[in-house]
Amino acid sequence: YKPKLDSEYPEVDGPLSITTYLSALDASYSRFREKTARAYKCKTGLGITNGNGHANGNGHSKEVDEKSVFSLDTVDYPIFHSPYGKLVQKGHARLLYNDFVSNPSSPKFANVADPEALLALPYAASLTDKALEKQFVAFAGAQHKAAVLPSMHCAKRCGNMYTASLYGGLASLVAAVSPEQLRGKRLSMFAYGS
């Protein structure tokens, strides 16, 4: 949003706002996963394997990225800065896409259509590719409904709360899910903007 002094409404570049949000989400998620992988290596003294018990660098054509030690499956309730619900849905699907890029040979991704084409997409193109977005939003559908929607009640009622949107998401989750169900669960929170 940029102020437009001759109007009471600001100028908004919607497509740029979406790609900026998604690229910030990608960078945050990637960095967190790198730190988690490093901590895992230090704690265990082990390398990361590809799920078949083979360490990376073993000559297999589909190696697993070390960052896959942490994935969206590791989080019970991801909470997002929520300017509007559709962007949160795209963000959640984007994390799933990042998991796919890190570990495309996972059985979880067996039904991903044309995986080679998705993996060949340049990063900038992946941010705006509608087919990719549509596929991963659909793929994430059930997980989004169970894990993300409980944190969206406040945003649905209030709209964009800017800085407060992340904390509104946390408050929504705490109000929507019983303490017994939350005990021992892992939450992730993505702050963005204000």
Structure description:
With 194 residues, this protein is mainly alpha-helical. It is 53% helix and 4% strand. The chain contains nine helices and two strands, in the order H-E-H-H-H-H-H-H-H-H-E. Strands 1-2 form a two-stranded parallel sheet. Helix 1 packs across helix 2 (85-102) and helix 2 crosses helix 5. The N and C termini lie close together (12 Å). Residues 50-62 have low confidence and may be disordered.
Structure, briefly:
With 194 residues, this protein is mainly alpha-helical. The chain has nine helices and two strands. α1 crosses α2 and α2 crosses α5.
Global Rg: 18 Å
Mean residue pLDDT: 89
Number of helices, counting only DSSP H or I runs of 4 residues or more: 9
For the biggest sheet, the summary is: 2 strands, parallel
Strands in their spatial order, largest beta sheet: 1-2
Unreliable stretches (pLDDT < 50, length at least 5) are 50-62
Tell me the β content.
Answer: under 5%
**Percent range for helical residues?**
40-55%
Strand element count: 2
Instruction: State the oligomer.
Output: single chain
Helix/strand/pairing category: mainly alpha
Order of helices and strands: HEHHHHHHHHE
What is the overall shape?
globular
Write the layout of secondary structure elements.
Elements: H1 14-44, E1 77-80, H2 85-102, H3 115-120, H4 123-128, H5 130-139, H6 141-148, H7 153-158, H8 164-176, H9 179-182, E2 187-190
Parallel strand pairs: 1-2
Helix pairs in contact: 1-2, 2-5
